[in-house]
Fold these 4 entries.
Entry 1:
Amino acid sequence: MASTAGKTITCKAAIAWSPGEDLSVEDVQVAPPRAHEVRIKILHTGVCHTDAYTLSGKDPEGAFPVILGHEGAGIVESVGEGVTSVSVGDTVVALYTPECQTCKFCLSGKTNLCGSIRTTQGRGVMPDGTSRFRARGRDILHFMGTSTFAEYTVVADISVVAVTPKCPTDRACLLGCGITTGYGAATVVADIRKGSNVAVFGAGCVGLSIVQGAVRNGAGRIIVVDINKDKEEWARRFGATHFLDPVRVVAESKMSIQDKLVEMTDGGCDVTFDCTGNVGVMRAALEACHKGWGESIVIGVAAAGQEISTRPFQLVTGRVWRGCAFGGVKGRSQLPDLVNDYLKGDLKVDEFITHREKLANINAAFAHMKKGDCIRCVVDMSI
Ligand SMILES: NC(=O)c1ccc[n+]([C@@H]2O[C@H](COP(=O)([O-])OP(=O)(O)OC[C@H]3O[C@@H](n4cnc5c(N)ncnc54)[C@H](O)[C@@H]3O)[C@@H](O)[C@H]2O)c1
Ligand SMILES: [Zn+2]
Ligand SMILES: [Zn+2]
């Protein structure tokens, strides 16, 4: 056991004290892990839109003060009583979608969602109802069961997976959300077969990862749709066969984007994905599907209060509307396979890192994310 085991650690974390404000990098006390908990020294974390969404105050469930971050990797510093799945020194990825392997969801074989700590995770506390973080003399909330914007964090033992130390943590962290969400959506959730025509709306980290999964499954046409025309080069680099700027399509052909896709694919796409979070795009993605069997997968997270709509006849005539979280991937049983895919050269990860920052400068990472040229900014947690 490390010399810090069983003791409170004082380290730096980026604390969100209130919505709409910059994060404040300051001292935080991180209590030792209790039974079935793991304390991780976070080495690298990605910054994702969900962090920005909660920080903005638009998430009705967002509570403050909180330590955000859910795309992190590091080393196990110590474990609480009863932890058997990981050991001190393991290289690990934090999982915001836990996997207990015993609840109704985990046993269903139909979903990667796990119900066992959902309520406490949503309230920003550990499964026993308390927090492990304190700063300025008060408790600080956890986020998504991970809180990776801290040099040390405590997670439930079902919210962490060990991966091979051969995978550097600045790459492994990205498998904690964005890349897995897209790649899993294409390879675990969707029915993409050899020759399938696929349309991907939104070429960010998630959409580009779908393109990789579609290539792996032998898709035929892989059509990427994005309002940022600079994304064409990105999309083609990952294996897209076609790129459409929807604004240009409408202006030049006087057709809606869905009609254009139906025309290009002789009746519609076999599978489409929304990776924008825009409910109008979700509708277009559904309506671009082939009659009889086309399926559209919603991945983008829409703003609070938004609703989706289409004519019911679209579904009556056999199109399927579905969605998934974390790409349908079961973190503890399936994430190590994705890490191996990366190490074998079958899954691109390095290419996603367009920006890097240190923890002290984490607010710059949020600023990068809001610009069109950033796919992922990785934050080095060493000060
Ligand atoms: N379901 C999940 O588990 C999960 C996990 C991670 C992220 N997400 C969500 O997935 C979405 C994509 O994440 P990301 O990190 O790739 O985001 P991103 O911002 O990097 O990429 C989004 C892309 O969509 C494009 N876009 C925006 N509006 C568009 C429109 N009307 N038509 C076509 N393209 C449009 C943008 O130009 C951009 O290239 C976000 O909504 C995010 O919150 C969901
Ligand atoms: Zn995320
Ligand atoms: Zn479970």
Entry 2:
Amino acid sequence: MHADGQSFHDVIVIGSGPAGMACALTAARGGASVLLADQRPGPGGAIFRVAIPGVPPVSLARAQKRLRDRLFAGLENTPAIQRLPEHLYLGLDADGLVMLEDRKAGQVKTFRCRILCLATGAMERVLPRPGWTLPGVMTAGGLQVMMKETGRAPAGRTVLAGSGPLLLAVAAQLARLGTPPLAVIEAGDPLRQLSAGLGLLRWPGLCLEAGGYVASLLTARVPWHRGARLTGIEAAADGLAAQWEDRHGRVHTLAADRVALHDGLAENSFGLAPSGSSQNAPGHPLVLHAGDCREALGAPAAACSGETAGEICLHVLAGRTEPAERLQQRLKTATSRYGKMQDLIARAFSPQGGAQHFTALPDDTALCRCEGRTIGDLRKLFTADPGLSGRELKLNGRFAMGACQGRFCAANTAAAVAELTGSSLPVSTITGHRWPVRPVPISSLIRLEPGKADHAEEAPQ
Ligand SMILES: Cc1cc2nc3c(=O)[nH]c(=O)nc-3n(C[C@H](O)[C@H](O)[C@H](O)COP(=O)(O)OP(=O)(O)OC[C@H]3O[C@@H](n4cnc5c(N)ncnc54)[C@H](O)[C@@H]3O)c2cc1C
């Protein structure tokens, strides 16, 4: 307990994926008092998502299974870690209080700590396309989560489109569960990127995993169209019609029940206080980012960066302070070899014919789903005022103004601006940093925690 009556922990870790679990284990084993919170009911994060009771866990590659078993056993055997499932991190308030929403109780709780380690993972990137907001269109990662939780593949005809190795993984999982997709439409062509492919041979486990996915697709006769792009989706009498263009510019249509899109992974760092910051104010914790929310490099790198963050926690708690840049460097060095691997994967899957995407989109393509703003609206704004700032784009154009506050559209909006105007607009200039990082009901904010002082009159910022 802190002097001001707030619950106190040496370290609060947000996110119980590989990074958060590794950080909590390292810090707790070194004697720190640790609180590990996650919005989900169980640990595991995106990769080790636990199936609903009665459903056997999905099969994992050997190295992934070893990592999962090690982290889960560690968590079971370290009762010193206080776990707080179904608690959503909302942010740090102006007094340095960590705000968590207890989702079951519908109540915001506040905590103090010396170090706040944010390990909130990655989120999927999905580029806008005509028809991408239609019912039946989802993300490939969302489809994968459904299969991990239920152990079943959805019935019907599925098309996977976009770019990246996750498309292959999801296609193979669908095939292994007995419902192979109609096709995988991949913008890149990893089989033609010889030097990247040769470089990746330094990671034999990864190559074996990828080979296993390709073998599943070959066995199930799933076409893997490389150097191809999905140009639009339309509602049809019996579901959806997905138009795609092959590497020679020929246009094809596939009738499907669902289209699952994926264009890569990006850090889920939306609205988070920067890593290394202690906001230079008394009572504020040191903030660290670990795992994919720091840099989306995959599960082994996430565990490695979580361990390093845990070691940093122990150093800081022992009174050994380091400048923020040194802390950042330590986290970067720990995962540098995984960075090289991800660079090669990105090269292998780089879209054929260049990365331009937004220029070719018709004006009525939705860009901001919450506010119904289109690429045409964006073009009009910049034609009228080419020097528009991020804040003006938000306030005048209503981009990133809706319920998600830009969590889903700001990165695409910034990329569209860069492509259309040639000038870069950092995402944070559109969204800013503030809490809550996710929408929270007012009833949760004003509901008092038993035994705590009445903060209801203090307006949140
Ligand atoms: C959709 C998806 C599918 C993937 N599929 C694969 C795959 O097939 N193979 C593969 O090798 N890698 C896959 N990855 C990548 C892999 O999951 C990650 O590299 C790895 O899990 C990163 O670990 P992490 O601990 O950094 O984050 P995560 O494992 O993502 O864990 C982050 C945790 O933080 C929690 N969280 C996030 N925000 C909040 C908040 N505000 N409050 C409270 N809790 C919060 C989440 O619930 C989650 O449990 C996938 C990633 C995604 C996003």
Entry 3:
Amino acid sequence: MTEVKVLEGKDLTRIERIGAHSHIRGLGLDDALEARKSSQGMVGQQAARRAAGVILQMIKDGKIAGRAVLLAGQPGTGKTAIAMGMAKALGEEAPFAMMAGSEIFSLEMSKTEALTQAFRKAIGVRIKEETEIIEGEVVEIQIDRPATVGAASKTGKLTLKTTDMETVYDLGTKMIEALTKQKVQSGDVVAIDKASGKISKLGRSFARSRDYDAMGPQTKFVQCPDGELQKRKEVVHVVTLHEIDVINSRTQGFLALFAGDTGEIRTEVREQIDTKVAEWREEGKAEIIPGVLFIDEVHMLDIECFSYLNRALENEMAPILVVATNRGITRIRGTNYKSPHGIPIDLLDRLLIITTVPYSEEEIRMILDIRCEEEDVEMSEDARELLTKIGKETSLRYSIHLITAAALACQKRKGKEVEIEDISRVYSLFVDVKRSTQFLMEYQEQFMFNEVPGSDEGQMME
Ligand SMILES: Nc1ncnc2c1ncn2[C@@H]1O[C@H](COP(=O)(O)OP(=O)(O)OP(=O)(O)O)[C@@H](O)[C@H]1O
Ligand SMILES: [Mg+2]
């Protein structure tokens, strides 16, 4: 490999839906890293949030690499939520990769390969490049259509100007397509990357601001550039090591990034990339940005994975590893030994442990309020109180789930806001774990494979 490619266009837009954690916009800390009672969608759990904030600060300062944090606590105490908060607070540049322990077993690659990829997704490389760009205001675009259909390809001319000069450029088919696609017209200020031919519309020239009265409110006006049309510009982009791996590993290149079908990546490819990145770092062209790898449900990993983690953390380019589990003392997968959280002692020893605690009634109430707002559900005061009580008695998750269901019940009876009746209706429609277990206890003879009294196996909860 003579050249390591780093970029092949990353114009992805993300689709946002209302997910379990979509209300979380950060860790909700103040400048002194104290957790505010309720901020950025985060409520309570102050000690854990503060601890997470301290870790984040260390990452931002670039002080630590290869550290690991364990979020441990009962189900529904906000471990995943805190990890999401960290991701949001981390900022644009540092990458945040996330996976669930169980994913390791469902991929068409070895477990260690899956973990290696996950680690490399969490390491960013900031690359500085000088490129030549042409930047100017479009005076005219002239496209010559061929006389016969499908005969010769289209050609054309593009006239660009700055306040000081004007030049006519010849256009090929590719450029014409790009210009048409972006609806570039005269009066637009554009920048064209000479190497890749990528066109970016910077806005409309101020000189043209009075031309149209029917322009959308989003139209951005910019000054016509001055000086030379051709300029050298330093561009900085951040890619992850994994992205570089994929782009360089196979013929389909970056397409694999979109398809998610990357397969195993050969060790030689990775070695070459690591050498290249090291060279760039020495030349001052690149910097490593260690990000965060979050492995949820970490007790699902087995002993092989755990020992891989031990080693991987000692690598100098390792990201910060955050793992979460709700398990107590349990068997380590792949062995017959028991250990706290189902994690071997040698790995536990390397972890900073953050514990999460159950929520108070007031905190549950606040989280439910935030969720109502997130889901756009109007709810009466009484209904909120009842839902909070239910949350306290059953679980936070169960009560969060009732919000959507109750809103539907309310819609059905054409009500304006969710009332107590809607809550009690869905409370009787959907049972929580406690009632479901109760039901099983009473009627278990009628179910298949019931073996409760006296037997070890088949107990309902671990
Ligand atoms: N402190 C909090 N502030 C706001 N929302 C929270 C908070 N804690 C939890 N939630 C919300 O409550 C729900 C359950 O929390 P979460 O999924 O984080 O629990 P968990 O500790 O990961 O549980 P499990 O061990 O079962 O995975 C989520 O929708 C989460 O966004
Ligand atoms: Mg979780």
Entry 4:
Amino acid sequence: MESTMVTDFKDIKQEQMQEFLHDSIQVPDDLQSNVMVTTLDKVYNWSRKSSMWPLLFGLACCAIEMIATAASRYDLARFGMEVMRPSPRQSDLMIVSGTVTKKMAPAIVRIYNQMAEPRYVLAMGACATGGGPFKEGYSVVSGIDKYIPVDVYVPGCPPTPEALIYGLLKLHEKVERQSITTVPWYRKGASEAIPVPVLGPDIFDPRKVQIIKEQTLGAAAAVKGPAASKARLQPQPMTEDAKARIRAAQAKYRAQKQPA
Ligand code: SF4
């Protein structure tokens, strides 16, 4: 009986280790209990995904589901992420759970900039993903990905704890596909901080300030005389050049977040 249990245990251990073993370097049979050959990427990614520390950060009703996920029934401890960190400087993962108002967006971007790399963002729920039931409301932004790069979207209003855990597993898969040789945080030069959006009558993104100036001041400057003040108030159609620049900026940010 005892020897069967030992064999079973060995089989389970072997099965769990299988995904970490090197594809081509074989270990002789008599050393298999003591020696394992793997890659640096596997160890590096396994350690990061097994201790993904989330930021304690909730915005609205979705946060209640996030809190439930962290409680005993769902047990985030099995992923090494049971303690939500109170500081962005100790966190790897921002779970944006709830409605993102225009007033809150600058604070979210500022907190994101304070997180050390590698850092990830999970948009939890319809509101954080695209505005949800408040989309195009006067006070709500249509998704946090307008301002910071999002790695995983979890749909639902609100998503269940099971859905959030599924999103976290998807994030683990993304981490597993990255390589230490190509990840952005080990490239030369410091990463650029994301400009903090400016809260005003309507929030605006400083990355688009040049385009906004060209569209408003440029168009108004071209009109002289009594019609000039009226022209300033007229919305101007966006030029093809401005659209191309927006597309180029979006492609640049997407490329930065591509998994290796
Ligand atoms: S997605 Fe639904 S549950 Fe989540 S914050 Fe928005 S309204 Fe609340």
